[in-house]
Design brief:
It contains 3 helices and no strands. By secondary structure, it is mainly α. The chain folds into 2 domains: 43 residues; 39 residues. It is rod-shaped. Keywords: Membrane, Transmembrane, Transmembrane helix.
Length: 106
């Protein structure tokens, strides 16, 4: 008989091997080993949920450049409409009718 308790799901050898491998190492080496293990296991487990960054020659600046170009286009479009409407309003104020009106027949 093995006793009333069920065996440990991971096993005691797993934990004692970690202790045995790291007990004589300085903290910075233990930390580096853990970071390496954690990084690999995290990316292997959850990497499928992350966007694959294929930004091309611009690299990490691609989203910033694309946003800047889009913002510039939207701003220029808004400025064009604003200036056009301002010109029409100014012409109406001086009684000229604006540039969208048909010329007065002679």
């Amino acid at each position: 008989m093995s006793g009333p308790l069920a065996p440990h799901p991971v096993g005691i050898k797993f934990w004692t091997s970690i202790w045995r491998d790291n007990k004589d190492l300085p903290y910075n080496q233990i930390h580096a080993k853990f970071q390496n293990w954690y990084g690999h296991s995290f990316h292997r487990t959850f990497g499928k949920y992350f966007y694959q960054h294929r930004a091309g020659p611009l690299g990490a600046f691609a989203p910033i450049v694309i946003f800047s170009v889009g913002f510039k286009i939207v701003t220029m479009y808004y400025g064009t409409l604003r200036d056009t409407n301002a010109a029409v309003d100014a012409a109406n104020a001086y009684g000229q009718g604006g540039y969208k009106t048909n010329p007065v027949p002679k």
